[in-house]
Amino acid sequence: MLDRAKDMVDHDVFLQLLELDEEGETEFLEGIATDWFEDAQKTLTGMDKLLKDKNLDEFSKRAHYLKGSSAQLGMKKLSATCAKLQHYGEQWDDEKDESRKTNLSEDEALALIPPMFKRAKKEYKAAEAWLRRYLKPHDDGSGSPSNSDGEAEEPKTPKADLPEVEPLAKKGDAPSPTKSTEKK
């Protein structure tokens, strides 16, 4: 799970969001995530219709919106895929040469969008599942998580995938004595 999370999540952004919550709480993150789940699902549904209608301009705008909202939550893989969809909707690509744009015809763009859009939907589902697991570890109903053998185990959340972060020091606070910067 660590490798998948590294590819999917911008840990610096995600950790900054975690720092906005009280120690041990996820209320702020839960609110943002819930809003993102709803917005992303509506946006993807709208993009489906726009693609069927061949409305590339509006499709591009929705891809841009989803790119930004995903990036704000740290979902970097989905954000990158949405950037590609935005470009295709604007009828250009930089796949062959990142230093310059290649103009695409409407037909070329419409041929490139469906597989990339399918990928975006899959990445959204993976990001949503990751966030939901993070916010509420799986419980088998017994009150304690268990593995496939039915043995109790520690709850597994993506928090284990994130590096530990010291809370931000408040103005006027002395440096923490627990962390030494001296080399031994």
From TrEMBL:
One of its GO terms (molecular function) is protein histidine kinase binding. Residues 153-173 have a biased composition (Basic and acidic residues). The modification Phosphohistidine is found at residue 64. GO terms for cellular component: cytoplasm; nucleus. GO terms for biological process: phosphorelay signal transduction system. Residues 136-184 are annotated as: Disordered. InterPro entries: AHP1-5/YPD1 (IPR045871), HPT_dom_sf (IPR036641), Sig_transdc_His_kin_Hpt_dom (IPR008207). Keywords: Phosphoprotein. The keyword Phosphoprotein applies. Residues 25-130 form the HPt domain. The keyword Cell membrane does not apply. PANTHER family: PHOSPHORELAY INTERMEDIATE PROTEIN YPD1 (PTHR28242). This is Related to YPD1-two-component phosphorelay intermediate. It comes from Serendipita indica (strain DSM 11827).
